[in-house]
Amino acid sequence: MNRVIVIGGNGSGKSTFSKKLAAITHLPVVHLDKLRWYGNWQMREREEFDELLQQELDKEAWIIDGNYNRTIPHRLSCCDTVFYFDFSTFRCLLGVTWRVLTNLGRVRDDMGGNCRERFSLSFYQSILGFNKTHRKCYYALLNDAKKVGKTVVIFRNRRQVKKYLNTLG
Fold first, then answer.
1. Beta bridge partner(s), residue 4
2. CA 139 to chain centre
3. Which residue segments constitute the domains of the chain, with CATH numbers given?
4. How far is CA 141 from CA 48, 86, 123, 152, in A?
5. Global pTM exceeds 0.90
6. How far apart, in whole angstroms, are the C-alpha atoms of residue 137 and residue 160?
7. Mean per-residue pLDDT for 11-26?
8. Helical residues (DSSP H) of 3-154, grouped into ranges
């Protein structure tokens, strides 16, 4: 496990998992939100983001945390391991609510720029539709990844995540 991607619903715990996995494996973590956002909730241009992502993918080892769906196929082609957080919509809503309440007004260490945590109705709406919109496609991508020898780990709840991390150290 040298090149890892972590994908799944917002609020499922991808970033927290990535940080814990990095502490155990000593792999560097790349948060896609740090690459995508700068300033005060300003998005980098697509080309600049893609260039920054490619610079990270060209490195020998990494954990890349985040979705950015259009980049998943490319990241899958570069990784050896993928973790998919297939959590219920309710669990993701709880996770985001907890994150907002505990970080409101602060910039998280996994976020780029001066993007202070805030409540966003549109973000909550995206969580409501995430599984319906993306789950089927993610499973197709993961099945293809398995066929070419990638290690695929699917978590359906936090208990499975904790148990997995405990087996590593």
1. 63, 81
2. 16
3. 3-168 (3.40.50.300)
4. 25, 14, 24, 10
5. yes
6. 22
7. 97
8. 14-25, 32-36, 46-57, 72-78, 89-103, 121-147
